[in-house]
Amino acid sequence: TKGDNGEWTVTGDNGETIDKTSGVITIPIGKSNPGDKVVAKAKDPSENESGPSDDTTMPAPPTITPDQTSGNVTITPPTKGNLDGMDIEYKTPEGTDRKVRVVKGTDKKWKIEGENPDEVIVTENQGIVTIPKGKAKEKTEVIAKSTLGEKKAPAQKTPDNQHLVPDKTGPQAPIVKVNEKNGEVTITPPTDEIGR
Q: Residue 129 pairs with which residues in a beta bridge?
């Protein structure tokens, strides 16, 4: 509301702030549901009302969980707010960049959109995506974004090292060699990765 003194004030209970001079209202992050439509109208002193103006807040990001026991990587859609899909990126064991899109239909059921050469799995009711063991390159990142129309949540990446695609392949064996002339034993570490 603009007062007789020319200053703007706001009455709300979501922590909104207002610039007293310009009347610009700011709703802090976390005070509106992700993926919600925010609608505003103006009203003049004669009670004439403008048409609505709206925009949609960003959807919340998904959660990426590498299972260090099974070797699978799961991507879980956010439980709060609205979204219509997720874009998932990873590398195959051969190093090929792979993109998979899962969408939530108007019937609220999830499905994979487009090709699915790695046999990624999505649960129809919850939208939980599983990249099976061996389909994503070990020790690389998985990236996932929630989408709502043209809006995309900031990319969510697998956190720190222990959460990369699980390493389920053992290293090559070291080479043990006995020198038959002097009895000396040498042990050479594998070339694929230095022993830990």
A: 75, 122
With a threshold of 0.90, does the pTM exceed it?
no
8 A C-beta contact, residue 112 and residue 159? no
Q: Please tell me the distance from the alpha carbon of residue 6 to that of residue 182, in angstroms, as a whole number.
A: 98
Question: pLDDT digits over 107-147, tens only?
Answer: 999 999 998 999 999 999 999 999 999 998 888 889 999 99
Burial class (CB in 10 A: 0-12, 13-18, 19+), 136: buried
**Helix/strand/coil for 163:** helix
How many Cβ atoms sit within 10 Å of the Cβ of residue 70? 13
Number of H-type helices and E-type strands within the chain: 0, 16
One-letter amino acid of 123:
T
Tokens standing for residue 13 = 């209970």
